[in-house]
Fold this sequence. Notes:
By secondary structure, the chain is an alpha/beta fold. About 40% of the residues lie in helices and about 15% in strands.
Amino acid sequence: MSGLSELKRGYEERTQRSRAMFERAKNVEPAGVSYRNRYFEPYPFFVKESKGANLIDLDGNVYTDYWCAHMAMILGHAHPAVMQAIKLQAEKGWHHGFVHELEVAHSEAITRNVPSAELVRHASSGSEANFFAVRLARTFTQRAKVAKFEGGWQGAYDPLHLAIKPPFDRPVSGGITKGSQEDTVVVPFNDFEGFKGRIKKEQLACVILEPILFAGGCIPAEREFVKALREYCNETDTLLIFDEIITGFRLGLSGAQGYYKVEPDLTVLGKIVGGGFPIGVICGRREVMEHMDHTKYAGLQYAYHGNTFSGNAITLAAGVAAINELEHSPVYEHIDRLGEMAREEMNQIFTDAEFPAQAVGVGSMFCIHMTKNKPIKDTRGYEHCDQAQCKKLFRFLLENGIVILLPETLHGGVSYAHTEEDINQLANTLKEYVGFKI
């Protein structure tokens, strides 16, 4: 193998069925995919089966999966306990359209583990949960302004769908009006003085923080920064919202708020708490959450929440089963150890080879940044990363049966199904790459 062109040919030769399916998909889906993050050149492989730490495509090729279904599959794909819960619930009905016992059981599991959670409401996605959390914050405070951090990913809700990657002043999508974002104040991450300078004398309804900028490069917030934000919110009667859609039940049962020992007023959860099914959760302080209670509040004091599939029975059955496994199995000991092992191995390889890259992250999460510039404290570090090199590494890993997304920003995580052998495979493949001149 002498270069990237041969890697590309090798992939195409092994994935003929995926290529044919992609041609079909382009006839009925824009770009031939259901989400832009799932596209990569020359075309994505199509998954036939997922089990444990592996994905199997239409041609029978097996890939070690570090994307973990957008970080949702902390137990690995098709975990037996979750599978059993799904089967049992399916026999009883998969969506009732009325309240049911699993709503209570799932909410109890959330309040049992998440320090800030006193009351819980369910939604169908993380984007939707962030939307309802912001609406609730505005209702409770009777203010409009929202502070959102550079590099934070809060989903597709218009007021939060901005300043995700540099340049932060460039629109992320068409169709988003200036009016929908005029009450959003974009603030710097890990820079409290910069935060105060941006908000000036704004009366904020809330500050929404992703404690680990996962899509932004798996960059942890500094502990003193998080504490300073909590103090600011206390002093100004502003609500602090933690977007824990990634970190919730991944950084331990208590998530990022347990890790940082700082309690927000509201927490948004998703992914893991649905056991791999679509879900969003809004939870937090009783006095705030009660403004969703139509029996207590009305008019401008009431924050509407609800949708057709909130509290879906299959989702909550899977979620309760997944949380039960997290509570009673040594999941975090295993995934955190492998996550640390992966980062240490990768950084040692990069150092030994004098290769301009570094692995960052915390717990079971990691991101490979193609730069030696340290420290990486915020998403502005992307301006110094070699994205072309990143795409080459993505292609090399893919050719060797390893998948980490996205091609230009390689970030991923470890599941309970991963093993030391998987980490060794990743390390050995990286060793080969850094000595392989493309």
